[in-house]
Amino acid sequence: MMATNNAVTVQSGEPPRTPDDLTKTVSASRLICFQQCRLKFWFRYLSGIRKPKPPALHVGGSVHAVLKHWNKARWKNSAPTLKQLHDVYSSVWAEDQKSEPVDWENDEQAQKKTGWRLLETYFRESPIKPTERPEAVEVTVEADLRRHGLPSLAGIIDLVRPNGRIVDFKTSGKTPNGDNVAHLSDTQTTCYSVLYREATGKKESAIELHHLVKTKNPKLVVTPLDPATEIQKTRLFRVIESYVNGLQRADFVPSPGIHCSSCEFFNECRAWS
User: Fold this and answer.
1) Number of CB atoms found within 10 A of residue 6's CB
2) How confident is the model at residue 15 (pLDDT cuts 50, 70, 90)?
3) Number of domains composing the chain
4) Could you tell me the pTM of the whole model?
């Protein structure tokens, strides 16, 4: 299944990847994209199409970079000032656009202000004390799943707090609902659980989702989750199995839904045949 030639513009840059490339290892982000819409997965990873970065993604990336800096500073027993953190934010904001242009639609400064307000809210309301030293920050982990007949699982864990509390940072346009967000994040959080256990040989004590919410008055919502169960691990392995089988069959069909309104490949999808 492919898009018609007149529906897409393949720009120069990273060459399209092959299904074989994408099944040697798997990641939470690729699994989630495949679950959401298989045609979107094809456009994003296999077609070679490049798109300007959406503003929300740039804001999230800049916020994430500052939180990474803050966490690494605490790991080194350092305490950056708010001004130093703002300088990091401004630097990342500008530098990232040199390699990945953003489609701002004339609202860059408003978006930049929103991102910094999210960070101010986080530093003011975070359950993490400035003196708390992390166990790990932005650690890259790979789990060998060949014993389950599956490819390796790879990923980066944002933060591990003391006693094995895994933290994932997210920016969101709306307030998350506890049960709903636990379900929607299940693939990602179970991936982190499997990776953490592979790296440490022990079970995580908990998983925390830290949502920085872009409401009129920004807020922080922390969703605590229990360690992954064996049922969740089995579900994840079935998802990986479906992913591998789908790529081998070239099963790339659209999945129309509410998520389409924010999809960068909306026009290409409408022209798909």
Assistant:
1) 7
2) low
3) 1
4) 0.89
